[in-house]
Structures are given as structure tokens and as C-alpha cells.
Amino acid sequence: MKSLAGPIIGAIAFALIGLQPCGAAEPEPKDGGTIVMATTAQVQGFDALTTRSANRETTMAGGLVFSNFFTRNDKGDRVPDLGTALDSSPDGLTWTLKLRPGLKFSNGAPYTAHDVANHFQRILNPSRNQMFAAATGSLKEAVAIDDTTVEFRLAYPWAAFPSIFLIDNFLIWVMPTEHEKTAGPDLNRRPIGAGPYMMTEWKQDDSITFEKNPNYWNPKAQHLDKIVIRFLPDPTARFTALKTGDIDIFYEPLGKQVVAARGDKGLKVVEYVGTGASTVNINTSVPPFDDVRVRQALAHALDRNIELKVGFDGVGTLATSFWGANSEWHCPDVGYPEYNPEKAKALLQEYGKPVKIVLQVQPTAIMSIPAQLYQSFWQKVGIETEIRSIQGGPSYINPVLRGDYQLAMWEVADVPDPDFQVYQAFFSKSGGNITRIKDPVLDQAIETGRRSLDVDVRKKAYCDFSKEMALQMPILLRMQSNYFAITLPRVHNIPLMRRGLVRLNEAWVDPR
Amino acid sequence: MSAFADDPGHETASAMAAPSPMQVRDRLGFRFWLPAVWIAIVVALATTANLLPLPSPIETDFAALSNWPDRTHWFGTDQLGRDILSRAIFGARISLTVGLLAPALGLGIGMLLGMAAGYFRGRVEAVIAAAMDAVMAFPGILVVLAVTAYVGASVPLLVIVLGVLTVPTFMRVARANTLVFAQHDFVLAARAMGATHWRVLSLEILPNVVIPMLIYALLVISRIIVVEGVLSFLGLSLPAPWPTWGNMIADGQVDLATLPYIPFIPAALMFLTVLSINLIGERLRARTDLRGSAL
């Protein structure tokens, strides 16, 4: 045994070295080649007023065409892209964005502050779309001062405002003013941006293709000749396509596929634990959920470690707030209800009436199996659960937005500032308050977090928010947002998957 | 055998051992009996499921998650530790209930309308045929998807919707058969003797039409079982946790690579059941098909 120890330790050390993130030893980028990424959903389009929302596939495609004013490196530092500076007035009511001089759209037209201001005014026009009210916060207007300077005027100081320019976001995809005015309905499918790639082909229900933008300001960062995003909804088919080399990136694998890929030397797993969480939303305005004891009982009845095993194949972290241990907004010991079926029974006994509930899920095994698990746990404490399957898309989302639901599986996405996660969904006066929670402590914390420019004050506010959420339970927290992609080893330079996005703007590949 | 030994005709009979087409048609053979035994077993298990020493089909066992088939769980357990044998047997109830009742409803209405159309002809036939054409113009599966998505699935609803959708085909088969029998001498004789329409239809035509209708119904049953499975797979049949073969397949599809027994067992059961019903129906059809007879 002793004689084997050395080789075994050596083998383990070798394996660990082999598993090191390749950042330190990242080879020189190579130009040329194609990346094919397969995704669950289709790209919706590129005009915010047409799409009204954007799934991750859309955001990833838009990131290629439009890029961003700033990006973030792995440390989270702001890196200039289309913008060079963003400064606030002392009162926090005016922000000035400086654009990189000489920018051009992919069609060769100059990219100026007037295009940016026109785009924001189009988005802010209340007669066109109220959907963006929460996302645009206290932004009142955007004004072009000169060709490279845009001034953003706010109704009140809004700490989260600068983070709008840090994330790929369909609301800030600026197209030439003339194109926005004349393209009509085609605008959604004919994007013209100033990002590193431009859309060259869109086969509905199949794929969307991007090629180099010859007018991009930083050609050194454009490594790939072509990027193809393929729509392949079945995760098993995506995994097979990756293993056979038909695709290079498998976006959104299942937990068990991540486990399999980790043991496969021919594959790389890209992983990111972000803020946000998968949730079960509770409509607190309808009985029996208008009684906090019932909401707490729901939480106490669930053994989330079993859910981690059954629903997520043991991959991921249980959430106790939107901000996990690696987030700067993390708050330890928020008091999230622990598994305690006896306590659940006692709470229900106090409530004193039979509890029958309806849980809305999508008819996919990824949701239906955890739903049946919940049903089983709740049955054990005396709660009768009906599982209602509704196909994904508007028919699933709209009942929740209307408040025509009891419980619904949902997700609070990863975003750079907590304000985006909490204001719209949990502030009592927000139009997007989908849980219908009305709680003065929550309101106070959310308002403080939104308006204060002091980071410590904001951290305390979001800590108070998390603790009050654990008491009021307008949502059941499931897993911390944990994003995965599996790639072939030839794929390089994928940055952190913030918001679950695979950003291919500066990716490159080894030749096949 | 010894009785044949002295039979001078025996040698001739032996030389002609190959059965005649009539004999082949009359003999049901193993292609009928084997599927019939399978269907009998499935029906017997489904109807007596409550009496069998089976674990609850909805009771989760977190100590036995995703167990492969073994002595304790003959068909293994699913991702929530539920016994797959038990779920398969209870799931057969839904498939068979919907599969039998929906065609029964369609058969009842369709035969009534078809016989009326084929017997009375004229305006009655025109109105019924137009109504049936209108029903058939709807894409059936979309109607079912829409109704179950909006109203919520239940066994009575599935029976009604699927049953109504089978009415036109039953009506057409009934009308075609009625048209044939209505021209036969025994029907003309009954009418000449002053028999009422009701008497002619119920005593002269119905007994002749009902046999091919029942055999056709077998084929419809197999189709309905598959449709119910598709609806379950899409999450539009009975809600969880109650098992149906379709939702068992759907729940198992993500584990196809690692736990193939979870979707394959209910899929195999559905396949064998549908195949058996088709084989029985085909055999009975061949046996009762007058076109091939020597009459």
C-alpha cells in the first residue's frame, strides 16, 4: 500500500492540475473558425418594443450585435467598450456617458450620442410600452450634448442606474435613428449594431448566424469568422450533438449531464453561481396564502436536501436569499425556514382550515418531478396539492403577472444590482409585484436600497429585506442561480457566465 | 388417430393437409390468442389493482430513489422512489378506461347516426354527413389540446372529447354497412311485410352492422390509448401524482440515458397493449370479412 501512495498522490495532483481553470495558462488567441452553440429556446428578436422581454438566447445574440457601453472583467471591474466614461453629478440626478470617438454601426453609419438619446427616448415613451417602467427606474430623459456625450436625467437618485450599462440588456440595444424610424416591423429581425458581429442569416426554428462586423472599433478582439446559435430544445439531443462534435457549446445542460461531463476529459464544464434563485412564487393576496402561517408551513414541510438530490442531481447550492455566499450582498443567517414537518403541522393546525392548493408548473420533467416532490412533502403535513401543467411562454407567464395563480415555479435572475431583483417583484406599489406582498418592512428596505448611494446602507437594507422575506415568505426559495454550459476543449475565452449568459464576443477556437 | 387408420379417405385428406382459405380464416391461431391473453392479463391487473399486494403508486420513498429493478421492486422505482410496477398497473387503468369509454361513446353516437343516414338517405343523410364533415374539419389533436389546456384534464372530459372526435369515423363505417344491408332481400321483405322503420333498423340491420362496428372499434381503442399517452406526455391528461403510461414516460425521458428502465417499461407496456389490440382486431376483421368469404 505504501509503495502505491506516491503514484496515487501524483495521479491526483496531475488530475488536479489538469482541472485547473485555464486562465493562467491560456494560450495565445487564434483567429478564424466557427463556434456552434445549441440552446433551449429561440432568439426572439432585437427590438425591445417588439419583443417586450428577452430570454437568455436573445440577450446572448444581442450581445454579439450590439455589445455594450461597458463590460466587466472577472474581478467585476468596469471595462470600457462602446463607452469610455460614465460619471454622476454630485446629487446623483444626472449621469454623463462619454462614447468612444469614431464608432460606426455595422452598415458604416456613424454611431453617435444622438442615436443613443433617440433610442432611450423611444424606450421611455410611455405611450409605447409600460413594460419597461420598473427597468428604467427613475430615468426621465436622455439628451445628446454632442456627438459623443449623452446626458441621462433622473427623477431621483437611483443607485442601480450605472449598472444598466454594465450588462447585456435588450433595452439598450441602440440602432441607427434612421433605421429605427423606417424599418417598421422589420426592425425586430434586421438588427444593425456596433458590436463585434452582425447577423447574416436567421432560419426560423433552426438557427441564427453571425459574422464579423467590418466596422467594429476593436478588430483585435474579433477572433471567430462565424458564430451560429442553433435551436435544439431537447437537452439529450444537445448533449449528443456536443459529444459527436456537431456543436461546440451545449448551453443549459441538466445536472446529471454536468456530472457526466465533469468525468469526461473530452469536455469542459463552464459554471457560474450568480445572484438570484429558482423559486416558487406565492400569491399572497388569495386564501389560504393571505395567512403567513400557511406560507411558513409550506416552507417548513419541504426537505430541500432531498430536492437538491432529486431535482438537481445534487448539483448546486440551496438558496436562503437571492444573494449567496459569493455575493457582495450576501447576508448570513437570514432565518430561512428549516425542514420541520412538525412545525408545519402545528402552523396549519393554528390556521384551522383545510388547505388545498394549486401549483403551476410547466409540463417538463425538470419541473414536474420537483412539483411531485413538493406535492408529496405537503401531503405528509396535510396539504392537498393539485399540480397544474401549463405550457411555457405567455400562457405560463401571464396568469402570474395578472395574479391569477396560487403557486408558480419561477426564477429570479442574476443581475448586477439587487434593486432589479427586489423592486419590481416585491415593492408593494410596483406594477410587477407578482406575489402581491404588501409589507411595510419590505417596502422600507427596498426604498432604502434603491435611493441610497451609500453601499453600507444598501447592504444593511438588503440584509433586512432578506430577513423579512424569510419571515413573510412570499416566495419559496429553491436553488441559488447556478448556470452551466458544456463545451468542447477547443473553445476558449468564455468569460464568467454572469446572468447565465455565454458571452462569445471575444471567444476563439482551436482549429478542428 | 387409429380411427383414421382404416379410413380410405384419410390418405387423401393427409395429402391435402394444407388448410383451405376458409379454414385459415376460421382458425383464430396464436396471433389472436397470444395478444388476447396479454390483454386479459392487463385488464385483470388493472381492475383488481386495489386488491393486489402492491405498494401505493403515489407514495414516495426517499430511501429508494431511482432503484433499478430488483427483488423488492420488480420494475424498479422512479426518481421519487415510487414503485414502477404499481404505477404501471394503476396507470393501465387510465389508459384502458379512456381507451374503452371514448370509443364506446363514439360508437354509440356514430352508429346511431350512420344507420339513420344509410337507411333513410335523402335529407337526413345530407344533414348528418355535413355535420360529420364539419367535425372532421377540426384538427382533432388541437381540439383536445385546447380543451384540456383551458378546462383542465379529467377522465370524464377526456372520454367526452376523444369520444366525440371518433363519432364521424364510426358514423361513416355504420352508414356504409347500412347501405349494403338495406338492399338485402331480408330487409326488403321485412319492409314489404309492413315492419316499422324502428323494427327494421333494430332487428334486421343492427345485428348485421354491429359486428364490423365492434371490430372497427378495436382499432379505434388502440388509437385512443396512444392519444391518451400523447396527452399525458404533454402534461395534459390526469394531473400528477396519479400515474398514466404517458406521464410515466414523460417523467422518465430526462433520465433516458442513465435510467432507461423508467421510461421504457411504461412505453413497452403501451406498445404491447396497442399491438395486441390491433392484432386481435385484424384477426377478427379477417374472420368476419364478407368480401373474402365464399358466400
TrEMBL record, chain A:
It is found in: Periplasm. It holds the Pfam family SBP_bac_5. Keywords: Signal. One of its GO terms (cellular component) is outer membrane-bounded periplasmic space. GO terms for molecular function: peptide transmembrane transporter activity. It comes from the Bacteria. InterPro entries: Peptide/Ni-bd, SBP_5, SBP_5_dom. GO terms for biological process: peptide transport. Belongs to the bacterial solute-binding protein 5 family. This is Glutathione ABC transporter substrate-binding protein. It comes from Azorhizobium oxalatiphilum. The lineage of its organism: Bacteria, Pseudomonadati, Pseudomonadota, Alphaproteobacteria, Hyphomicrobiales. The gene is oppA.
Automatic annotation (TrEMBL), chain B:
Keywords: Cell membrane, Membrane, Transmembrane, Transmembrane helix, Transport. One of its GO terms (biological process) is transmembrane transport. The chain crosses the membrane at residues 32-52, 100-120, 127-151, 214-238, 258-281. It is found in: Cell membrane. It is a multi-pass membrane protein. It holds the Pfam family BPD_transp_1. GO terms for cellular component: plasma membrane. Residues 92-281 form the ABC transmembrane type-1 domain. InterPro entries: BP-dependent_transpt_permease, MetI-like, MetI-like_sf. PANTHER family: OLIGOPEPTIDE TRANSPORT SYSTEM PERMEASE PROTEIN APPC (PTHR43386), PEPTIDE ABC TRANSPORTER PERMEASE PROTEIN (PTHR43386:SF25). This is ABC transporter permease. It comes from Azorhizobium oxalatiphilum.
